[in-house]
Amino acid sequence: MGIGYSRNGYPKEALFLYYEMVCRFGQLGNFAFSMALKVCSDLCDLRTGRAIHAQVVKATEDPDQVVNNALVRLYGEDGCFEEAIRVFDEMPQRNVVSWNSLIGGLVKKDGVFEAMEAFRIMQGKGMGFSWVTLTTILPICARVTALVSGKEIHAVMVKSTAKPDAPVLNSLMDMYAKCGAMDYCRRVFYGMQNKDLTSWNTLITGYAINGLMTESMESFQEMICSGFSPDGITFIALLLGCSHAGLTDDGCRLFETMKIEYAVSPTVDHYACLVDVLGRAGRIEEALEIVKNMPFKPTGSIWGSLLNSCRIHGLVPLGEAVAKQLFELEPDNVGNYVMLSNIYASAGMWESVRTVRELIEKMGMKKEAGCSWLHIKSKIHTFVAGGSNEFRNSAEYKEVWKRLMEEAGYVPDTGVVLHDVNEETRAMWVCGHSERIATMFALINTGSGMPIRITKNLRVCLDCHSWVKIVSKVTGRVIVLRDTNRFHHFKNGMCSCKDYW
Question: Which of 93, 96, 325, 390 has a CA that sits 20 to 30 A from residue 474's CA?
Fold first, then answer.
């Protein structure tokens, strides 16, 4: 009966039944423990879960694999990772579910690198996998741009006798799209026998974030002709793509189309996209009119889009007014303060810059450090802005850097350094940005002609963007840089964003 309650969406009733069983029978067995622990996971009821764990320990019967797996899941999903590891290490036997629970807990804890390592160990032990394993690990590969690992998983799927279902293939498509490998994403899509709306949305989104808006729009039309109706996610992908590609009129037309032709009611996220489309293009008055007349109270994403537009177009007074709204809505979001500081810095208002930075310090907030990473030979290498001094001072680094600079005639644009310091310090700082260090590391440690794939946690700066274009021309390398906004595909001195991002 408890299992029935749990499977049919009545977890609280299942737990009440367990309490009744404890009161009536006292000592219970593994079957009851596993049911109750699953319910605690579903309810995020860690306190009751710990109490049941205590009953498991006191029981005369040793816990079986199902109970241990349920305990690993309970602790992992509630963020108690040390307890999850302890239970996992003490298990006499482990199966695929055990490893899935461990990996799921690591992902929940934001331990993406540890999760990938756990998956490698799992495969090294010949444990195999389930589709749940792959739908957990593929998004991690997407997140850290681990294309090689993603391809290895794809190879395992191809060799498997079982046919992957749509959710697994959708995860595979998403991984390829977020690694900037749209050719592979497209192949997986057209090889699918049973596509669903998520499959189409993944393809459309993949093209959009990679700057291929012609292909994204064509896929949208193909989806309509195939009998699928777009949803809100479809239009968010298209609107974001239009915003970053400078397709302002197309974005406005899509916004109207979604309401009139497809009966998709715009949410606040759609309005945020429309405001971004107009704001990036400098049509600030129209963006403000949208904010004024929309049927929602402006959210942080709306004001954030406007503040970014003020940064792009150097609108100080409006930026101050927008920032005031954001500070009230999101007082602990350091990014809003940093953006206002950058607006002041671009305008040379250094006293205002100092005021904002003192406020950040007073509130105990810290600006997120620029960080980039790349995947080489089954290992993820991470670089922080201004760091990796040993590598940057190595003879090999200096030799490659000197050769690149001599061939390109590159001179740093120190205007992107938004600090009131001398030119020498500005040049040193801009040349120490994390994406540059990662690019240099890849040039030295990968074969000539090999594509370079880098992920950055912040928006790439203007001078680094120019520098990577130069490097792609001088070296003949394809460099794929994914920042917080979009993908930049550099080839022969050109970027897929056409310098609009």
Answer: 390
What residues have CB less than 8 Å from 495, skipping those under 6 apart?
465, 468, 469, 488, 489
Residues 6+ apart with CB under 8 A from 342: 311, 418
Measured CA to CA, the distance from residue 238 to residue 234 in angstroms comes to: 6
Q: How far is CA 369 from the centre of its chain?
A: 17
* pLDDT tens readout for residues 452-461: 999 999 888 8
Q: Partners of 453 in the beta sheet?
A: 480
145 close to 453: Cβ distance less than 8 angstroms: yes
Q: Phi/psi of residue 131, each to 5°?
A: -65, -30
* 314 closest CA partner among 339, 286, 285: 339
Residue with tokens 């992992």, as numbered in its chain: 76
Distance from C-alpha of 140 to C-alpha of 135, rounded to nearest angstrom = 9
pLDDT mean for each 10 residues of the chain (501 residues)? 60 71 74 82 83 84 85 81 82 87 81 81 82 89 88 88 90 95 96 95 96 96 96 96 94 94 95 95 95 93 94 93 94 92 88 91 86 86 89 89 77 56 56 90 91 92 89 93 91 89 68
Structure tokens belonging to residue 447: 């074969």
Contact 316, 283 (CB under 8 A): no
Distance from C-alpha of 65 to C-alpha of 34, rounded to nearest angstrom: 10
172 contacts 184 by C-beta, under 8 angstroms: no
Residue type for 370, please?
G
Token readout for 173 is 């498509």
Q: Which amino acid is at 210?
A: N
Structure tokens at 211: 């700057």
Phi, psi of 385 (to 5 degrees): -55, 130
* Residues near 253 by beta carbon (within 8 Å), at least 6 away in sequence: none
